[in-house]
Request: fold
Amino acid sequence: MNIFRRPLLKSLLLALSLPAALLAQAQPAPIKIAMIEGLSGPFANTGEAVYRNLVWATERVNARGGVKLPAAAGGGRPLQIERYDSKGQNEEALAVLRAAIDDGARFVAQGNSSATAAVLIDAINKHNEREPGKRVIFLNYAAVDPILTTEKCSFWHFRFDAHADMRMAALMEVLKDDKAVKSAYLIGQDYSFGQAVAREARRQLGQQRPDVQIVGDELHPMGRVKDFMPYAAKIKASGAQAVITGNWGNDLTLLVKAAREAGYEGKFYTFYGNALGAPAALGEAGIGRVIAVADWLPNAPGKDSEAFYQSFRQRFPKPADDYVHMRMQLMVESLAQAIEKAGSLQAVDVAGQLEKAAVSLNGQRGAMRALDHQFQQQLMVGLMERQGAAGVKFDVEGSGYGFRVIKVLPAARAELPSSCKMQRP
Reply:
């Protein structure tokens, strides 16, 4: 090659590469949210449901220009969900937490296990004390053992779901008036959350319905029971007129399926019976007999609520993907609000604003309680019915069955006291 052509060729290549380099520099760095969840194993479907909800929430924020920060802090920046598979194991969750922090995540989201949430709180507390320049905030959307905002409450941890005692209180608002129920069977997963549900069920039954006899009270291994028929047979033989359970994921679906096959005709008072296969597993046997509590239900009255649900279904049209969580949307909105008000990504500044967050979306409102970082919002109780029945415009997962809202507890009534004694930095 002619020696005089080499500098010219280099100049041309440099000129062609400049626009791409400048464009790369112009793109604001995303704000990473590390989702630590079981994305494989027996509860993988629940992890994938969370991912869809968080992605949809961040898309909404990003569509309006992202999180608005001062120019010195990067200006408008998009939110980005990054997946980390805990495989449903605490040790794996701790390992991927370290990986997420090394990858630059300063916000961690998790929820589908209170036991995992507890170890993450401890690990994040220690990390934040050891490395103040890389502090992390923990966003909890579903781990509802009350201890997480009482004895284990942390300045770095924020829970956006109603805890187990709050959910049980909402169910009891219905059960206390269900005079046909004279006996109940308590069954749950054998870990901190399942134990908390059983404990609170016993306590609240004693207070609200002392006439109800507890004819069964047992815990089973979490995620390891493949055949619930022996449990269903015991439930039927006990004569229980209602089952009270906090089971979720496949542990709930398999339980209700076994109960149907065993010919059990009692009611199910559940925390999570409104989705993830449970309504389809019960079918006609669940009509008028399955009660579920949630922060929001698709058949919540009002045009705003209906528009919210239809938007989600347009984004995720497959019936199997039909499990939308309002609280996860409010969680992401709260985070965006807190970052904008803090004007920085420093964890202590964001946490200081997050504990004062008050947000609303499509008619649903919520506010963080600074005392213990427990989000306060209304709760709804629904009853399973056929789609098309009064108050049941939408079904669940294409099953033909949906939930009619039968009780709404305003946030003020759903709120419970806390014994948290928070240590602040």
